[in-house]
What does this fold into?
Amino acid sequence: MTRIEVPDGSLFGLDNLPYGVFSTQGTAPRVGVRVGDHVVDLAATLGDDVFAQPVLNGFMAQGHARWVRVRERITELVSGDVPDAAVHAVSDVRTHLPFEVADYVDFYASEHHASNLGRLFRPNAEPLMPNWKHLPVGYHGRAGTVVVSGTDVVRPCGQRKAPDEDSPTFGESRRLDIEAELGFVVGTGSELGSPVPVEEFEQRVFGAVLVNDWSARDIQAWEYVPLGPFLGKSFATSISPWVVPLLALETARVATPPQAPQPLPYLRESSPWGLDIALEVELNGQVISRPPYREMYWSPAQMLAHMTVNGASSRTGDLFASGTISGPERDQRGALIEITWGGKEPIQVGGEERTFLRDGDEVAITATAPAASGGRIGFGEVRNRILPAKGAQR
Amino acid sequence: MTRIEVPDGSLFGLDNLPYGVFSTQGTAPRVGVRVGDHVVDLAATLGDDVFAQPVLNGFMAQGHARWVRVRERITELVSGDVPDAAVHAVSDVRTHLPFEVADYVDFYASEHHASNLGRLFRPNAEPLMPNWKHLPVGYHGRAGTVVVSGTDVVRPCGQRKAPDEDSPTFGESRRLDIEAELGFVVGTGSELGSPVPVEEFEQRVFGAVLVNDWSARDIQAWEYVPLGPFLGKSFATSISPWVVPLLALETARVATPPQAPQPLPYLRESSPWGLDIALEVELNGQVISRPPYREMYWSPAQMLAHMTVNGASSRTGDLFASGTISGPERDQRGALIEITWGGKEPIQVGGEERTFLRDGDEVAITATAPAASGGRIGFGEVRNRILPAKGAQR
It folds into this structure.
């Protein structure tokens, strides 16, 4: 038996307990929980086949009351002695995509980000579209290309047309970018024809992950009118392997910034679901931005209510992301296009001037939130490397 | 034993053989093939468990060579005597969603449709966006709300703002519309980082279905800038229950209309995948349009090549639809917004002036294509009724 020691200041103490899917050499992927620098095998300790599955979907579908009970049992379990065979050093495990993604929706909920992009893309118009303060603007992305942290990202090819070119050319993206976001995972879905009220957010949403919504700005700029982003986004969306339970984020809840005009009734919250989560974005080991989630205009409860208000059903494994998280300051912006103002204002990284991503670059996004015990809890990281394009016709 | 009689002129002769998922009273959904006015139970006749599944995905994933062999075996089987218990009158079975939808993509491949919508939405600008003739414009839709023919469609609610209103109001859609489309189902997917060449279309795509991509034009008009359609589309997308194998559409292949400028190399076809498929749209039993698929500018092989050219993977069950099919004539348009020119030019249906859909309306889309034997094959139908909105705050 083993007593798991949680190092002082660990971001994975008993007030976090994030779930993931892991494997060790020669074993099948299964559900585990991270405690300090260890992963506890839930299939081996809790005696429920739902944890022997290679995705969290089965457990997530069991619903909120079950999530509460399992969290209590895990707390008891890891406060005592745990069988040796059920405990692995986090450095010894491989983490997998933690859940099967049903539908993937990406919102656009940061006023700073939407305003910055409006200024960059439509310099002679109002930065925000007329609808922006009335509803959380969002669109569907590609569920099949959501990948887990550690998966290399191949630079995409596609059609691009610079403003000074007559016609598009085919080739590798020259403006490959990141988008630092938070994603929310639906545990218990809702039926066709039954909108989810804002109040049901915490009953239905299982947890949150970090998201890097890779964006090929040149492909996107050429393709996106009038039906929105498509290939500029669909080549890859990376998520962190540990799903932080919504139950661990109670202490992080804050009010969203003031919403004016007042939203329509279906978007009004009776209790706030803004979240005081602090992100960090590293490029090749150097912090280039610290996006503050608490600045987000629309809350995730409002996003879910909006996404279903037309009667659309939701399913276990639906992932909805916040959109790029940007604060008011330059070093709080969650995308390179904003940080470098469309590539015109480079930043210094590793002694070089940098704008968009180069082959070989490594991007890591991390985040922490205040914990119930007074310390902080962590989201782990989403970290990926950029590989050169394959077979680009240059 | 039963010898299945195929009535003269049937659209479901041996040159069609579409696959679906059906059940009879008290039995589990399983795979069948339609022959004349009968459904043959493939689980009961071919002795392969893949047909006992409630979706076609397992069979579709087996690949092109297997699709060819099974089609040959079915042809032999239904040319002789079939066990009584494996044959059901089509009127005695219930049809189900034939496959689990992985990702759903909707294209915009009709030049007539895109031009009409451009004129309606942006009257003072060029009807087609600059990118339209360079690439098949498309976007991701909601896979979880793809439903089978026969599923009632509840009028959606949402935010709408008329041009003469100061701010949006919440309520039921006042401009509920249809979009008559054809959808293509991926059988064998492709890996992340491996674009599908146009030539691989027929190896990878299993078959085609009719699609009614319901659209709430007022919700869509308010929400769609800058990230594209979202709630105006995501409440329901209906498909026909019988998947017509691509193998049955060889005789329907035609060249697409001339494409100028010449597409970039990755979109050039060595053999044509335009399709001579004739659709009919009925509103409450009256034909209101006959959209010609052969007028579509972009072919489905070009759509698949474009969808994956950035390295996006594809999966068994991916559904990509053509976008509204409209021909050059008014009575060839596939959406009410075009037929009635934004509601300003009503049509006569059942002795009444009609523009957008009313509660209680029933819409049916059917289609036929030339058959190898000289007759025609049918797609069956996608037929749905509009139910009143639930709990709209009027």
The two ends of chain B are 59 Å apart (CA to CA). Chain B touches chain A through 65 residues (CB under 8 Å). Residues 2-96 of chain B form a domain with the SH3 type barrels. fold (CATH 2.30.30.230).
